[in-house]
Design a protein that fits this description.
Chain lengths: ~450, ~450
């Protein structure tokens, strides 16, 4: 994959992104000029530039100028806030099974194989390539329980240039012998060693962070959760992720294990795991108390509509409109492989479908998501959930250039009525609803090309 | 696209299809041999043949032998029971709009353009190519109101080799002047001329049939519906299609126009439009009376989960399990472009998702669809809805060979854990949940190659 650009770069053409202002409206710019320095930081953003003025604005002796074709536009890279890297090759299996059954029958046997470093290397390499192909420039990954495999996932993200949170899964109970941490001490020690590994390979945290990853309370003894809470307190730079109120079967099992807590919010908060750095996957079942708690503690929600509507106990649409109304941070997750798709476009479409179900359920009160909102969730919303909103998520000056070049003409995936009639807004709407990875022809992270389709 | 094979053909390798026996279980055959004569009819089906015996069973001097690679398997072609050909280039637009609003704002202006034969030719040619690429070997198409354009759609299906029902839309009221039949007489006369056209170009009806297509009662005067009912009675070979109980907004408007009928079932039955040849799109809202009526009259249901969950008034899951339980014929429709996708794989996935919603709504009574059931709906179920079950839908001897060669290795769309570990059933499940058109490398209709991917 392309090496780091030594030169500053300039991009001229159509640009679409979500605004940071309340409401997160789309900004649709047919003729914008974005300048990016050699470190991959956006240095200027001219929003309406005539083609003939570009050469005056860009010094092409020092800067690489990339003129988008009329069939192309630039959008921010997608941010996948919930992704199980070891499940890459099991996508699509176990549809309709309840969550705990699906874990036992399909997932634990599959994840257990990551004890073999060569297997981990092979699957993770394929997985990262697959996610970059889908335009996922930032992913928050659950690894397996194995520190070697998890370190290898981090190494591969760095080598391939993907921005990522990488977490060793903590699992000290309620899973088979072949897929459980040897002890609570070992579990925490392995976490510390994975933290140290990432600090070694990416000392400034340019692309990588370790993410504390108690799988969920069912698989963690209380002392394990407490230990992770202490690590979180000692390391205020580290994000935290877990599954939260995902499915009835899971909530019931959690209550049986932790009868002293009235809710999962109280449980995880007690162990110091609910902070503004927390990424809570699913949040399908929410009480008013828990909404308030998440808001107060500034936790982020990783909404995973694909898996919510297939595995995990049938069909459940998370209260996405209410998260937005309450100002709770929310982004999208593919939840690949519980989610059958690794595409953030699919996640956006399913988020809209799930929100329509919620609109019907609430008798019209909780309005379905618009395309602009689904896109915000997949980009800037995800950045907020990951506390990366000052770094990525849209094209504000000072942010790093994580971007996708979309080309609607590629491979006949999308169809226009008339090339010169469909405006940029229409083309964008068609991309979100009917495009796929074939339309994502170039992927940048921090200014570097990390995936490119042969033209 | 490839010319008609003059020779008989034989196919050896993995074959998967639905059985015609009750329950429609999948038959998964790793080493089958299918023989197809020069007319495209399946003449024999050996279900377990050793590789070394193939040469003995197939006389390769007279027969073209096609050995599938280890990464390939053969399935029946997909049958799209509900598809609006003129909406091809508007897919994805108008998400979340209510049905009648979406018709006025997006669809009528778009369909009105098919008055221009050159425009129709261009979009229809692209549409048929697009649907063949998705493995749709049979489609039941709504055309626009224009007879020239509709005849051109039929011509193109025949030329490209797609099996199709092609219908001129009857619309005599409640649409703008620019998109309404000139009169009831003209509407019926145009229908007769379209019927005559297809009988001229495909006299034996090898691939094509005209389908009587009153868009829905809202757009048809009573005399128009009555006239179409009379044409249906005089032409017992012609299928009939309309929209049925799709959305609350549509049902309310229909009741206002036809207060004399208690239900859409009574309405359409009164005009002679409910027969075993009827393909009723959507059927989202069904009373016990209407279930009984559809069963009694042997009507077929075109279940269109993608559009039901996006356009048309929010989110509505049709009672798919109840149709199956009651033995009402049911197949899948992409409903492209109300449905944002032209992929029957997407339709299968969304049918499963919609059925999960129905399972929750019925408190577990109406179980969600299994993958095998979704696949049956997309193939043999669709054939039953179109009264084509003696011709296509699976690989029984005597049926015509409409088939897809699926290759899981293509383009890295699907991922296996270990090539030699994932059994054929697992590979099939992954194809249904994670594959796309790139995995459909060859498409046959009646033994003829109608689409082929460069290897």
């Amino acid at each position: 994959m392309g090496s780091h650009e030594a030169k500053p770069q300039a991009f001229y053409g159509a640009v679409i992104h979500s605004l940071s202002t309340p409401g997160h409206d789309l900004e649709i710019l047919p003729s914008a000029l974005l300048m990016v320095n050699a470190e991959g930081v956006i240095t200027s953003f001219h929003k309406d530039v005539k083609s003939e003025d570009v050469d005056r604005l860009v010094d092409t002796t020092s800067t690489s100028l990339y003129r988008l074709s009329p069939s192309q536009f630039l959008i921010p890279g997608f941010i996948d806030t919930h992704n199980h890297a070891p499940q890459w090759a099991q996508r699509g299996l176990g549809q309709g099974q309840h969550i705990l059954d699906w874990l036992s029958a399909i997932t634990f046997p599959n994840e257990g194989r990551f004890r073999d470093p060569a297997h981990a290397q092979r699957i993770y390499s394929s997985a990262i390539d697959g996610f970059l192909r889908q335009g996922i420039t930032t992913a928050s990954y659950y690894g397996s329980i194995h520190p070697e495999a998890t370190n290898s996932l981090a190494d591969l993200c760095l080598a391939k240039g993907q921005r990522a949170f990488v977490g060793k899964c903590n699992m000290t109970r309620n899973s088979p012998d072949y897929y459980r941490d040897a002890s609570i001490e070992q579990s925490l020690q392995d976490t510390e060693s994975c933290i140290a590994h990432i600090r070694k390979i990416d000392p400034e945290g340019q692309l990588l962070k370790h993410v504390l990853t108690p799988r969920f309370a069912i698989s963690c003894d209380a002392e394990c959760l407490a230990g992770l809470g202490q690590i979180a307190a000692r390391n205020p730079d580290l994000p935290i992720q877990t599954h939260f109120n995902e499915a009835e079967q899971e909530i019931t099992a959690t209550k049986e294990l932790f009868p002293q807590f009235d809710s999962e919010a109280d449980l995880y908060a007690h162990y110091g795991l609910l902070t503004r750095r927390s990424i809570l996957a699913h949040c399908c079942y929410m009480t008013p108390y828990e909404f308030d708690k998440l808001k107060e503690l500034q936790c982020g929600v990783a909404h995973c509509p694909i898996s919510n509507m297939t595995v995990g106990g049938g069909f459940m649409a998370a209260p996405i409109r209410e998260f937005l109304n309450r100002g709770i941070k929310v982004g999208l997750g593919t939840d690949s492989g519980g989610g059958f798709s690794s595409s953030m476009l699919d996640a956006m479409r399913q988020a809209m479908i799930a929100s329509h179900a919620k609109e019907v359920e609430s008798k019209g009160k909780d309005k379905g998501l618009k395309i602009a909102e689904a896109f915000y969730l997949a980009t800037l919303g995800g950045a907020e959930v990951c506390c990366l909103e000052k770094k990525v998520g849209n094209f504000e000056v000072g942010k790093e250039f994580d971007a996708l070049v979309v080309d609607w003409e590629r491979d006949g995936v999308m169809t226009m009525v008339d090339e010169d009639e469909d405006g940029l807004g229409t083309v964008f709407e068609k991309f979100v609803m009917t495009g796929d990875d074939r339309n994502i022809v170039r992927v940048f992270v921090k200014g570097r090309v990390v995936r490119e389709v042969r033209m």
